[in-house]
């Protein structure tokens, strides 16, 4: 990277880096730094009558230089703590450079340092560390966007959602509460695994690259597998592989992993997302509803210490039991239309002409039509955890037929705060019925439905060996974390969500400038002066442009031989050509 591509602060930090090296200080030492305490630990266990020696490390977040003694603030993985640095204690001999030069001038906000000293309480009553040794552990070359306040107004806040998601490392450092969200996410996963393990279920891993995108109705990502010379699909669900393991004799299996659906993005959806799927033999969807209630209550208490969560001004309770309502009853209640026994065309007429749902198209089958109506008029109304049960068979190609309600299946979706959180079935284990359901799905695909399921012949073969009655469930982990942490955007609970490629300022290349006769060194000077494209200089006066370039050459002490007015005029003429 050319120095002129850096900001003035970045240039200053690199100069400090070189000065440290000139002093014989390695700004990136390899040796272990033996940390024995954290900011949280020091504060929690401080005793006024005990001189406790501590060794801590973290980032410098503030510096207050006060002559022969200064204060700083260090941020480690557990919080922040004040440092007190006395020149004569840090530098007991005649050489005071570690304080006067290194700490005061060459250490910057954001640098990672190691500190040895002892805990004490200042006259203002703040528990701090009296620094006796100070070690540079990592020089920060980019300045942090530290928030500053003046007259009650905050400046340099790092709060742009896209920037926070794109530079999560900065977001974690400067914004309070971000790390706690991801710690709570880890608690959700740890609690879930512990809950399943205690019930005797086995965590497994299934393929991410699959020959057939099965287990859900969704548009897949496609990639090419060079070694096999065939196209493969990023999995949209783990279901069909997990059921194969149930066929093989497992007493319960689950997987927590990434799924990929090549669909839209909004504050509730990300094409790459984390999902948990669990399958337990000899159970049904009634058992799974009770199991899910206990699971979610356990997770909520583990994360928040209570079975209630404050979310968008509402109190959501995960205390069992949850309300249960059949999907067609919910639609009738919210729209006034009873869809029981109606044909596809009758439901399409209701959706298009009576309910005026604009997202319906001619490729939609009966199941998708019902789903569109429910999504438009019902889904958002269920704030407290509610099981929507007994879906029509057209909506549930992998679900067992209802034992007492013809045309319906033993399926539930759990709605919380108006969004689906979980989807579960009494799993279909009749291979003949399953084959016909797949065939029906392929008919939808022939009509143009690019989310219809593909026939998985190997899965059908597995079913023919016999799968015991089984109940399965899928839970969206990202959405669950949103709900138990009170976050309103999925990007806030994903450390690294998908984003568009970062926009870059258009620039003419060094090679393109060279065709005008511009040497490479001067290309970077031109860019520093604001001329990123060759066309940017076509209206410049040669003498004025020479002056601008000369000022930058002088300011940054580059020592380049200044081009003549005649040479610069040739550049300008070339830009006009």
Summarize the structure.
With 577 residues, this protein is an alpha+beta fold. The chain has helices spanning 8-22, 39-44, 87-90, 97-106, 161-166, 168-174, 178-198, 239-247, 285-304, 327-335, 344-354, 366-377, 431-446, 457-464, 477-485, 510-514, 520-528, 542-555, 565-576, and strands at 53-66, 69-76, 79-86, 112-121, 127-138, 148-150, 153-155, 202-203, 209-210, 222-225, 230-234, 253-260, 272-281, 308-311, 314-317, 323-326, 386-389, 411-416, 419-426, 470-476. It has an eight-stranded mixed beta sheet with strand order 8-12-13-20-19-18-17-16, with helices on both faces. Strands 1-2-3-5-4 form a five-stranded mixed barrel.
Structure description:
This protein is an alpha+beta fold and 577 residues long. It has 19 helices and 20 strands. The protein has helices at residues 8-22, 39-44, 87-90, 97-106, 161-166, 168-174, 178-198, 239-247, 285-304, 327-335, 344-354, 366-377, 431-446, 457-464, 477-485, 510-514, 520-528, 542-555, 565-576, and strands spanning 53-66, 69-76, 79-86, 112-121, 127-138, 148-150, 153-155, 202-203, 209-210, 222-225, 230-234, 253-260, 272-281, 308-311, 314-317, 323-326, 386-389, 411-416, 419-426, 470-476. The strands form five sheets. Strands 8-12-13-20-19-18-17-16 form an eight-stranded mixed β-sheet, with helices on both faces. A five-stranded mixed barrel has the order 1-2-3-5-4. Strands 9-11-10 form a three-stranded antiparallel β-sheet, with no helix packed on it. A hairpin with a 2-residue loop joins β14 and β15. The protein is globular. The two termini are 30 Å apart.
């Amino acid at each position: 990277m050319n120095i002129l591509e850096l900001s003035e602060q970045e240039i200053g930090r690199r100069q400090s880096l070189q000065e440290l090296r000139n002093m014989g200080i390695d700004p990136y030492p390899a040796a272990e730094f033996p940390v024995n305490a954290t900011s949280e630990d020091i504060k929690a266990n401080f005793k006024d009558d005990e001189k406790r020696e501590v060794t801590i490390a973290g980032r410098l977040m503030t510096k207050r230089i006060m002559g022969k003694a200064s204060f700083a603030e260090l941020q480690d993985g557990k919080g922040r703590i004040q440092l007190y640095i006395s020149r004569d204690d840090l530098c007991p001999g005649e050489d005071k450079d570690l304080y006067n030069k290194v700490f005061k001038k060459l250490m910057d906000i954001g640098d990672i340092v190691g500190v040895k000293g002892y805990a004490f309480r200042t006259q203002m009553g703040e528990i701090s560390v009296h620094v006796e040794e100070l070690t540079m552990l990592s020089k920060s070359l980019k300045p942090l966007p530290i928030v500053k306040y003046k007259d009650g107004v905050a400046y340099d806040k790092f709060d742009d959602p896209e920037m926070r998601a794109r530079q999560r490392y900065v977001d974690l450092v400067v914004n309070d509460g971000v790390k706690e969200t991801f710690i709570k996410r880890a608690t959700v996963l740890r609690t879930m695994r512990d809950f399943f393990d205690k019930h005797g279920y086995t965590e497994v891993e299934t393929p991410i690259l699959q020959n057939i995108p099965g287990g859900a109705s969704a548009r897949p990502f496609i990639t090419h597998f060079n070694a096999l010379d065939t196209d493969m699909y990023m999995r949209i669900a783990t279901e069909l592989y997990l059921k194969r393991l149930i066929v093989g004799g497992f007493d319960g299996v689950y997987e927590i992993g990434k799924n990929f659906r090549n669909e839209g993005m909004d504050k509730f959806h990300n094409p790459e997302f984390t999902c948990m799927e669990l399958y337990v033999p000899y159970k049904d969807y009634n058992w799974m509803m009770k199991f899910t209630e206990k699971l979610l209550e356990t997770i909520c208490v583990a994360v928040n210490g209570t079975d209630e969560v404050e979310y968008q001004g509402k109190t959501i309770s995960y205390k069992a039991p949850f309300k249960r309502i059949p999907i067609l009853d919910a639609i009738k209640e919210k729209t006034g239309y009873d869809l029981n026994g109606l044909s596809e065309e009758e439901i399409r007429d209701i959706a298009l002409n009576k309910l005026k749902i604009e997202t319906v198209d001619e490729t939609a089958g009966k199941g998708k039509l019902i789903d569109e109506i429910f999504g438009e008029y019902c889904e958002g109304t269920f704030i407290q955890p509610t099981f929507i049960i007994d879906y029509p068979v057209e909506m549930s190609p992998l679900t067992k037929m209802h034992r007492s309600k013809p045309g319906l299946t033993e399926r539930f979706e759990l709605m919380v705060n108006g969004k689906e959180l979980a989807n579960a079935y009494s799993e279909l284990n009749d291979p003949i019925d399953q084959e016909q359901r797949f065939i029906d799905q392929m008919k939808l695909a022939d009509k143009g439905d690019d989310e219809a399921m593909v026939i998985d012949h190997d899965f059908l073969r597995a079913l023919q060996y016999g799968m015991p009655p089984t109940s399965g469930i899928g839970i969206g982990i990202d959405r669950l974390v949103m709900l138990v942490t009170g976050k309103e955007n999925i990007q806030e609970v994903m450390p690294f969500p998908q984003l568009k490629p970062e926009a870059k300022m258009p620039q003419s290349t060094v090679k393109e400038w060279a065709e005008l006769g511009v040497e490479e060194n001067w290309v970077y000077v031109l860019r520093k002066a604001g001329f990123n494209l060759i066309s940017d200089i076509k209206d410049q006066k040669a003498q004025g442009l020479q002056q601008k370039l000369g000022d930058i050459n002088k300011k940054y002490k580059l020592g380049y031989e200044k081009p003549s007015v005649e040479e610069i005029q040739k550049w300008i003429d070339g830009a006009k050509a």
